[in-house]
Amino acid sequence: MTTKELREKYLEFFKSKGHAVIQGESLIPENDPTVLFTTAGMHPLVPYILGEKHPAGSRLVDYQKCIRTVDIEAVGDTSHLTFFEMLGNWSLGDYFKKEAISMSWEFLTSQEWLHINPDILSVTCFAGDDEVPRDTESAEVWKSLGVPEERIYFLCREDNWWGPAGRTGPCGPDTEMFIDTGKEPCGSDCRPGCGCGKYFEIWNDVFMGYRKTEEGSYIPMERKCVDTGMGIERTAAILQKKASVYDIELMRPIVEKVEALANKGYGEDFQVDTSIRIISDHMKTAVFILGDRRGVTPSNLGQGYILRRLIRRAIRHGRKLDMPADFPAEIASVVIDLYRDIYGELTVKKDHIITELEKESERFLATLAKGEKEFEKMVPNLLKNPQKVIPGRIAFRLYDTYGFPVEITEELAAEHGLTVDREGFDAAFEKHQELSKQGAEKSFKGGLADNSEMTTRLHTATHLLHKALRMVLGEHVQQMGSNITSERLRFDFSHPEKMSEEEITRVEEIVNEVIQADLPVTMTIMSLEEAKQAGALAFFGDRYDEQVKVYRVGDFSMEVCGGPHVNHTGELGAFKIAKEQSSSQGVRRIRAVLSD
After folding, report:
1. How far apart are the C-alpha atoms of 42 and 25, rounded to whole Å?
2. 387 SS3 class
């Protein structure tokens, strides 16, 4: 059964059960800052699950484009994909567990539909915990349909609980369906979900009977809903008896194009196969992000950062396979042709997709050239090391400052008879991730509401404001805290008296002059002591780690900060102080905004 036939059968089946066919939504969630991409078919339907009335009714079915960023590093094996499609059907306060499970069983096993042998199907249910009881109701429905008790497994929250799309929202236990592939069990405790490959998940019914609150508790919902999901690619692999999702008819042409451009065969070498799969998946995902109706372009923030990461990881693996520099555009054309009948927006935006891939490829290759040049400068000193080992902190500095992948550092090191302290690099990378996660809350009292483009612009503006205040009022001015949302910045600073109108005007003028100068904003990592010696502002004592990020705005300012920031001050727009007032004794507070 092809993926096209699978889509059509799924929609046809649920139409016959009274479901209205609706259109899938954009990959970029609208008005939802909790996630970067649509991660599941239910994501666009959250408002309706929470109680809003859907114009198409209470029974719905569709297929939805999805991206899971948590799977990026896992991509390279035979089953993980960053971009995938989900078949889904929903009950919005209509039917619940019995009807949902019965329909799932019928679609899977009926001769008219998928006709899967019932004897190779096993199911899992939620085992319950201190917060939510055991889901015996679902187990009893499965038994009534003929599933023997020995093929019904009760698993913990990690396996059989579907959390909200963000920190809060609808959630509940799920029941999952698995196909026994016939492989030998991995041990006496082998079961669905153990990861050995014997059991392959094919479907998931989520029973949205709870709502998670800000406090982390679970409140039963009066209006209970059902969200089911079946991955098109994984299900197609089972139905087509393929060993990998990369062998189905929607992935194989992409893999074959990578093979041709790399002049290497797929299925002959483990490392080559891994690179081919990474390139195939990441380029496909990049095409869908760029081609989405709310598509973004590569950047250092949010969805743009994920897009950049995917493209650059694909390019790095393309270099490993000696592929031509223009390979992204070649692969993009194959992806667009494969999906032209299903997602017409890719064809409409083809020129835009190709142009952005070419631009990002050029940027990354230039970045690599800079990193290689910097590496060559280091070589003479590195060769003096008797152990011939490049310290992890140096490898990380190349990565963080120049975007230089550690794998390329290792390749260049090997050419000079050197190795890289990979453990040291990993430790520095983990610390970097923690710094990024904590963001401004690590470096400042207060912090950022989110990492959106506008919040980032206002965050950079606080650096300009801080410096301008010290220039106008004196160097006794020190930042005492900040709170930044996408609408405004709030900045507290030490100063004994109310600012005059002239002083406020002069501060605004200085900040806007720096913005108009379009100065570069750059970042380096160094020890706190080095930062202070270089003249960087740092006023929060023991709040800093040993290694800190130092942001420079041209020659105007230099400050220790956790980020994020714009690349050039010209991106900020016009700066305006909306209010200056007292915050506490000896501390003043400024509220300011940016406008285009």
Report:
1. 10
2. coil
Nearest partner of 93 among 221, 224, 209, judged by Cα: 224
**In contact, 165 and 35? CB cutoff 8 Å:** yes
Quote the pTM value: 0.68
Distances (CA, A) of 46 to 22, 107, 164, 226: 15, 25, 9, 11
Which helix or strand (DSSP H or E) is residue 134 part of? Answer: none
Q: What is the 8-class DSSP label of residue 568?
A: B
Q: Write out the DSSP string of 395-443.
A: HHHHHHHH---HHHHHHHHHHTT-EE-HHHHHHHHHHHHHHHHHTHHHH
- Those residues with Cβ within 8 angstroms of residue 394's Cβ, 6 or more apart along the chain or in another chain: 378, 382
* DSSP state for residue 520 in the 8-state scheme: B
- Sign of the Cα torsion 439, 440, 444, 447 reads negative
Prior bond of 29 cis (ω within 30°): no
**Beta pairing class for 59-67 and 83-92:** antiparallel
> Could you tell me if 71 and 81 are in contact, meaning their C-beta atoms sit under 8 angstroms apart?
yes
Res 9 pLDDT > 60: yes
| Domains, in order of start, for the chain | 3-241 (3.30.930.10), 252-364 (no CATH), 385-436 (no CATH), 440-595 (3.30.980.10)
Residue 440 has pLDDT above 70, yes or no: no
Separation CA 315–CA 586 (nearest Å): 54
CA dist 122 and 104 (Å) reads 13
* Residue 43 structure tokens: 């994501």
Q: Strands across the sheet with 521-527, in order?
A: 521-527, 547-553, 557-560
Tell whether the model's pLDDT for residue 484 goes beyond 50: yes
pLDDT digits (tens, 9 = 90+) for 293-339: 887 888 867 788 889 889 988 998 999 899 999 999 999 999 999 99
The region that residue 459 occupies, defined by phi over 0 for left and psi between -120 and 50 for alpha, beta otherwise, is: alpha
Tokens of 188: 């006496």
The first and second tokens of residue 125, run together, are: 């249910």
Tell me which DSSP letter residue 208 carries: E
Tokens of 442: 């690590």
CA distance 334 to 256: 10
d(CA 65, CA 243): 23
Neighbours of 502 (CB within 10 A): 9
Q: Name the one residue in this structure whose structure tokens are 């612009």.
A: 457
β partners of residue 44: none
**122 to 111, 125, 232, 560: CA distances (angstroms):** 19, 11, 19, 55
Instruction: Name the token pair of 342.
Output: 């299903």
The structure tokens listed for 471 are 């220039």
CA–CA gap between residue 511 and residue 560 (Å, rounded): 19
Which of the 8 DSSP states describes residue 500? P
The mean pLDDT value for 153-179 works out to 87
Residue 172 CA to residue 574 CA, distance in Å, equals: 47
Q: Is the pLDDT of residue 444 over 60?
A: no
- CA distances from residue 234 to 82, 237, 361 in whole angstroms, order as listed: 13, 5, 31
| φ, ψ for residue 490, nearest 5 deg | -120, 125
pLDDT tens digits along 537-556? 876 544 445 567 789 999 99
